[in-house]
Amino acid sequence: MTCPPNPAWAPTPRTEKGFRGRRRWTLALAIDGAYHRPVQDHLDLQGASGATYRFRLIPEPGQLPATSGNFAYVRWRGATPQVFCLGAVNNLGSAGRDWDEAVRAHGASGLYVRLNVARAVRDEEHADLFEKHRPPMVSRAEA
Asked: How many helices (H) does the chain have, and how many strands (E)?
C-alpha cells in the first residue's frame, strides 16, 4: 500500500505472529516523508538498581492475559517513554482497570505487561521500577 503524500496520520498495514495472517492496521506519523509508529511493541524499562526489564505491548485492555505479572502505562514522547503507572498483580486482567483514566488524564498511549509468576520476583521488580520512575498514578489493581 502506498500512502498519500504528507498526510499527518496514515494507516500502515503490518502482519504479526499469532494474528492468523490477517493485516492489522496501525497509525503511523508522517515526519519528513518517513512513517513512524508512535507506540513500540516492546518497552525496556530500567530500574533504580540498573537492571533492565522488558515489557510487551497489549494493543487492547481486553486482551490482557489472566496470569500474574507487572504492568506499566506509558506515553511516548518521540523515542522516550514516560511512565504514568506501574503495578504488580496476581491477574493481569485487572491491569486495565485504570486504563481509561490514564488515557484521559495523562495521555497514556501504551499498556505494557511483563509476565512474572513468582510473587517475590514481581514485588522486587515493581519496587525497583517504582524507585526509579516514581509514576504519578496509583494503580487500583494492586489493592
From this structure: 2, 8
How far apart CA 86 and CA 137 sit, in angstroms, is 8
pLDDT in tens, 94-126: 999 999 999 999 999 999 999 998 999 999 999
The pLDDT tens digits of the residues spanning 62-99 come to 899 999 999 999 999 888 899 999 999 999 999 999 99
Q: How far apart are the first and last CA of the chain?
A: 47
Domains and CATH numbers, the chain: 1-38 (no CATH), 42-133 (3.40.1440.10)
User: Which pTM does this prediction carry?
Assistant: 0.72
Strands lying side by side in the sheet with 9-15: 9-15, 23-31, 34-36
Cα separation, 71 vs 69, in Å, equals 7
